[in-house]
Amino acid sequence: MATSCRSLALLRIFLAKSKPAARCIHTESKVTNSLVREKRNALFESEKQRQLSLVSRIEKIEVQYKGQPEDCTLVMNKNLSTPFNCAMHIEEVVMSRSVLALVNGEPWDMHRPLKESCQLHFMHFEDENPTLANEAFWRSCSFMLGYVLETAFKEQHYVQLCSFPVPNVRSGSFVYDADLGLEDWRPNSIELNTLSRTGFKLFFKEYRFERLKVDASVALNMFADNRFKTTQIPSIASRSESGSTVTVYRMGDHVDITGGPLISNTGQLGRFNVTAFHDIESSSYGPLTRVQGTALPVQLPMHYWSYENIIAKRAQKLNTAPVPELKQAQPLQSSAS
Questions:
Q1: Is 214 within the bounds of a domain?
Q2: Is residue 185 included in any domain, yes or no?
Q3: Contact by Cβ (8 Å): 83, 101
Q4: Domain count, the chain
Q5: Which residues have C-beta within 8 Å of that of residue 201, sequence separation ≥ 6?
Q6: Fewer CB under 10 Å: which end of the chain, C or N?
Q7: Does residue 76 fall inside a structural domain?
Q8: Is 187 part of any domain?
Q9: What integer pLDDT is reported at residue 252 of this predicted model?
Q10: Residue 71 CB: number of other CB atoms within 10 A?
């Protein structure tokens, strides 16, 4: 509750001073990653609370759980209860190891509210077919890599995250392409280790990945200080009769755009290494830095020698995922809700 109140207070400050702040940013170049992160987090919390306020009546739904230790039927709250809440009622080991849920066969975030009566399964990294869980983990690692890049550098270096490619575990590395605000810099082994430690510390935080679908105008406000995201939002927004929406996620105070799904929380991270920086060129965005990393889930331990000398070294090679390019955008429509 204290965090929510602080976020809302910050939002009121940003809204009250939006015009003077804009002048400061453009005339004195005072924009910093910490200031922008506070703004995004406050906007995320405000929109989350607004959407929760729309649930004026609590309705019950039946959730048919299929899996270990036994099948059961749970009575939960529509638009409020999540698969994680269901797992809490089943067994602690189910709650801690579950990476994703399958809701009526559809991949579903563990902390995403359930909309109707449904059939529920849970997925983890040791399933017979862990493909969806592995892809969610790789996608989440790219998300966490964005957090590392926005928080690891001194304030005078303004990092602008561009995008990360569709997860491909076979590539050997997850990726985030970004403008680091640094010229002719490549990290040495000590600096790579420092970046890796920044990412691995998330394991101890156990931050949840929160999903929120917002109006495109809200997303544009969140990422107004990122030249890449502001050009991408019109082209990636989902359009319907009610308007245009964008899916954003929050991990701690880090907010970013991705369609998901992501894993349950950062406590499911076992190893995390930032392995390489490569120069790439985009015809839409110009020169970018492709930052790569590799990781393992906590459920899948590996001997340190094999991990460092095979997995991590392989992840140093340039990941050949497509360079980010801007798709043709369509006019945005404001959501009615």
A1: no
A2: no
A3: yes
A4: 1
A5: none
A6: N
A7: yes
A8: no
A9: 97
A10: 9
Collect all residues with Cβ–Cβ distance below 8 Å to 336 and sequence separation of at least 6: 242, 243
* Euclidean distance between the first and the last CA atom of the chain, given in angstroms as a whole number: 25
Nearest to 144 by CA among 271, 314, 230: 271
> Domain of 112?
60-123
CATH code: domain of residue 77? 3.10.20.30
pLDDT averages per 10-residue partition of the chain, 337 residues:
50 45 42 94 97 93 96 96 97 96 97 97 95 97 98 92 94 96 89 97 97 97 97 91 91 97 97 97 96 97 94 96 83 56
How would you classify the pairing of strands 60-65 and 118-123?
Answer: parallel
Residue positions counted in the chain: 337
Tokens of 192: 């790579």
Q: At what angle do helices 131-151 and 33-53 cross, to 10 degrees?
A: 130
Q: Is the peptide bond before 187 cis (omega within 30 degrees of 0)?
A: no
Q: What is the pTM of this model?
A: 0.88
For residues 86 and 82, give the distance between their C-alpha atoms in angstroms, rounded to a whole number: 7
- CA contacts within 13 A on the Cβ side of 29: 5
Tokens 């002719």 correspond to 184
pLDDT of residue 6: 52
Which of 142, 141, 171, 177 shows the shortest CA–CA distance to 291?
Answer: 177
